[in-house]
Design a protein that fits this description.
This protein is about 25% helix and about 35% strand. It is an alpha+beta fold. A 4-stranded antiparallel sheet has the order 1-4-3-2.
Length: about 150
């Protein structure tokens, strides 16, 4: 059973952002990828996870972040040993790790994208103004049928 907050610390070790070309106004596909590159057992209930996060803008550019996090859970040591053989974490641990990676890296990637004049790596909310509804008609004199 996982603890409430299994990721106890997360640090970024490198950031790389490149804009390859200037193509203003062109529609750009934005792809995200978070990858676990190493899982190391530190104790029976603790492991260190090294990761990378990439936002790809196709021919426009790329943002890459790398870092590590500390994960504490009753089964963390066994999961780290198992990862060495299979390169697979249990689904609930993988979800917590990737969630922590995304919640740390996406805000950093937004800032880097802004600096390089690339679209933010998240969809911005779309504001749509709706026309005021027409006032309801008085139906006292004429019953409606449907």
């Amino acid at each position: 059973m996982a603890t409430a907050v299994p990721v106890t610390a997360i640090t970024l070790r490198s950031m790389e952002a490149r804009r390859y070309q200037d193509t203003p106004g062109q529609q750009v596909r934005v792809d995200h990828n978070s990858n676990i590159s190493l899982v190391a057992k530190e104790a029976d209930d603790r492991m260190r996870v090294e990761f990378s996060y990439t936002t790809s803008y196709g021919p426009l550019g790329v943002i890459k972040l790398e870092g590590a996090l500390q994960f504490q859970d009753a089964g963390a040591g066994a999961a780290a040993e198992s990862w060495g053989q299979s390169r697979i974490l249990p689904p609930e641990m993988a979800q917590a790790v990737h969630g922590a990676v995304l919640s740390t890296c996406i805000p950093e990637a937004v800032g880097l994208a802004k600096t390089l004049r690339m679209p933010p790596p998240i969809p911005l909310p779309q504001v749509q103004m709706q026309a005021k509804p027409a006032p309801a008609k008085d139906s006292y004199g004429s019953p409606e049928t449907t």
